[in-house]
């Protein structure tokens, strides 16, 4: 699912919907809007988010995997990660696929 916090500003919602429609056209991936992304922390679910607090809440439930999208304002703020944000996410998702969900979680408790 594509999960997004709608926020309190209708303009932000419209921008997020526009992004979803552009990149998920003809997709079977649903769009979920919630201010409580941690409620989706189920086994087999991966949250990619740029806010450390969202990842922390998600991981604290212990069921899903939260990955911090590199940005200057979060804990994944090294220049080499920021320079290749999508590559970092792609490699991390590949590792999860290769190792398996539970095995990856055991070795990467603090992403």
Briefly say what this structure is.
With 111 residues, the protein is α/β, with parallel strands linked by helices. It has helices at 10-23, 52-60, 79-83, 85-99, 101-107; strands at residues 2-4, 31-33, 46-49, 65-68.
Q: What coarse outline follows from CA principal-axis ratios?
A: globular
Helix amount:
40-55%
> pLDDT under 50 segments (min length 5)?
none
End-to-end CA span: 21 Å
Largest sheet: 2 strands, parallel
How many whole angstroms does the radius of gyration measure? 14 Å
Following the backbone from N to C, one meets helices and strands in this order, namely EHEEHEHHH
Give the spatial strand order of the biggest sheet. 1-2
Quickly give the structural class.
Answer: alpha/beta
Oligomer: single chain
Number of strands: 4
Number of helices: 5
Provide mean pLDDT, rounded. Answer: 86
Beta-strand share of residues: 5-15%
């Amino acid at each position: 699912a594509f999960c997004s916090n709608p926020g309190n500003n209708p303009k932000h919602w419209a921008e997020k919907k526009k992004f979803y429609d552009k990149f998920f056209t003809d997709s079977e991936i649903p769009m979920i809007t919630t201010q409580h992304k941690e409620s989706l922390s189920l086994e087999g679910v991966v949250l990619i988010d740029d806010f450390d607090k969202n990842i922390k809440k998600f991981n604290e439930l212990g069921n899903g995997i939260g990955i911090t999208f590199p940005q200057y304002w979060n804990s994944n703020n090294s220049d080499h990660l920021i320079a290749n944000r999508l590559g970092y996410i792609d490699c991390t998702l590949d590792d999860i696929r290769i190792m398996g969900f539970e095995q990856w979680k055991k070795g990467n408790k603090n992403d």
